[in-house]
Every structure is written in C-alpha cells, then in structure tokens.
Amino acid sequence: MSEYFANKVAVVTGAASGIGLGLTEHLLSRGAMAVFMSDVKLENLDKEAKRLESNFPGKVFPVLSDVTKLEQIEACINKARDFDGHLDFLFNNAGIGMTLPTEQVTFDLWKFVIDINLMGVIYGTYTAIPIMRKQGSGHIVNTASIAGLVPVPYQALYAATKSAVKTMSESLQYELETDGLQFSVICPGNVRTAIFGNLTPPPDSISVDEAVEYIFDEMEKKALLIVLPQAYRDFDIAYRTNREEFDKFIRQLGAERRENYRTKGTYY
What we know:
- This protein is of the alpha/beta class.
- It has a single domain, classed as Rossmann fold (3-Layer(aba) Sandwich).
- Helix content is 51%, strand content 14%.
- It contains eight helices and seven strands.
- The protein has a seven-stranded parallel sheet, sandwiched between helices.
- The longest helix is centred in the middle third of the chain and has 29 residues.
- The protein is globular and about 55 Å long.
- The model has no long low-confidence stretch (mean pLDDT 95).
C-alpha cells in the first residue's frame, strides 16, 4: 500500500471506462479511503461501481455527472469533500478523441470538443482549487495528450484542447504550489481504451494498467508532466531538440493519414 494514496479521498471523472476506470481501481488498491466515480454513462457507471464495491466495500461512490455541466461537477466534488472533510485528489480525466480531416470539422464540433476536453477540466479544477487551498494540500491531475505537446496532422481540434489543458495546469502549478497544491498533466500516447471507438487500437498502444502504474509512480514523485509510454517521451524530446528529424517524421505521418483517409476512411 502506498502512503501517498492511503486514506485519501479522490474524484475521478470519466471513471467508468478506460484510463479513468484504471485510475479508480489503482486508487482503491493503494488504500484510498473513498473514490467518487463521475461518469455520464449510467449503465457503465453502475456496473463498474458495483464490481469495485464488492472488493472495496464502503469506498466506491458512483456519481452520474456530465463534465460540461458546471453544477453537476460542483455537486460531485462537494460531495467528495463532505465525505470526510477533505479532498485530496481530483482526476479531470473525462475526454473525447477527435482525429478528422479539416474539411469535416465544423464550428459545432469545435464547441462540442472544447466543452468536454477543456471546459470540463476547467470546471473541475476551479471548483477544487478553493477547497484545496483552504486545507493547504491537494493534487489535481489533468489528462491532456501527446497531441498537447507536439503538432499532429488531422488533430488540430483535439490538440488545441489538450495543449490548453497542459499549459493551464503548468501555470497553476507555479502559482499555487506555495499554497500546498500539486498539479500533474498526463500526456499519453496510444493507450488501449474506448477512445478508439470501433477501430482496432494502433500496434504501438499500451494497456491501461501499464499506463496507470507509470502515472501513479510519477505522481508520487510530484511530477508536473507525465508523458507515456517511452516512445512518446522520445517523440516529445525530438520535437524540442531535433526539429529537422521531427518535421520529416510528422510530414510522413501526415502523408500516411491522408492516404488512409482516401483509401480506408480512417486515419490508420
């Protein structure tokens, strides 16, 4: 059992599947006092909460909530705080993927993705901050993406939301660390989750368990930026230190995606 997570109260959004479910399971296995599982999908939420409750009785609290609705996120976070008088972790994890040719991106789609991927994180973060400042401690973990670190063709919309999450979180770290707050930004590459929809995950993808183990290890080190897996850490370094090689690779990726859309209707 890790002392960093033991006897702590946490909120996880997007908790009924994928990385969010993995975060929830690992919090419980590492001794969390209570995990409030926020998700918009009632059937998945009930099913997974009941499964976890059987192994961790009295520690699992499903909360049906939509991250695009401020009042619903406020209610979830306040419920967690009221459980034992403190809120130790907030994982703003709910999000949606978006890889499309520019001609298919509409203004309505921009608003839809911004509301989930960015406003959802803002609502959670700015609801938790005053609670954590008052208690003098707390760790907010926001899920971004490798696309929030480097430019990726056919993902301008998605990348815009994720880069905003990354920069906001970093800015808040340097502002609020003297108040006892810690921020981390998760920037995953391909993890085998439902974000791929009906598509088969890419061959370089890793399991949720592998991803979450690394995330938790880095959180204990108070890491601000958590990039995974290793291939994507190398990718990020190449972007910053070897632009000629990076540009060559990313243009090749763009060409491959262009051809895949032309011949298969998908990006890989």
